[in-house]
Structures are given as C-alpha cells and as structure tokens.
Amino acid sequence: WHWLIVLVIVMLVFGTKKLRNVGQDLGGAVKGFKDGMKEAESSADAGKTEQLDGKTINAEAKEKVSNS
Question: Who's near 11: CB < 8 A, 6+ residues apart?
Fold first, then answer.
C-alpha cells in the first residue's frame, strides 16, 4: 500500500508526461547498454580467436627448437 501512495504522489508532483519521458529515456539507456555489451562480447571473442592462433604458432616454434 505504501508504494501505491508514493506512486500517486509522484504522479501528482511530476505529472504523467514527465514520467513517460523519464521512462523512455531510461529504456533507451538500457537498450544502448545491452547493445554495447553485445558488441564488446563479439569483439572480445574475435580477439580470443586471434590470440589462440598466435599461441599455436608459438607452440610449434618451441617444438621445432627443442627437437634440434
């Protein structure tokens, strides 16, 4: 019940239009954050693939040196 009273008071003070705008801004920020996280994960995965290729080349070079 307390939260309902607080919500009614906030709506009276700020009005529904401002609350709607705040909601849209918050939703846009969350969407932008999620898109950024997906982009960061995809670029991190690409970096890991390149790094693994480099380790494989180094391992082969060490084996050749140790066999000589």
Answer: 19
pLDDT tier for residue 64 given thresholds of 50, 70 and 90: low
- DSSP 3-state percent helix, strand, coil across the chain (nearest 5): 95, 0, 5
Inter-CA distances, 35 with 1, 44, 52, 57, 59, Å:
36, 14, 26, 34, 37
**Per-residue pLDDT tens digits for 24-47:** 999 999 999 999 988 888 876 666
Chain centroid to Cα 55, Å, comes to 28
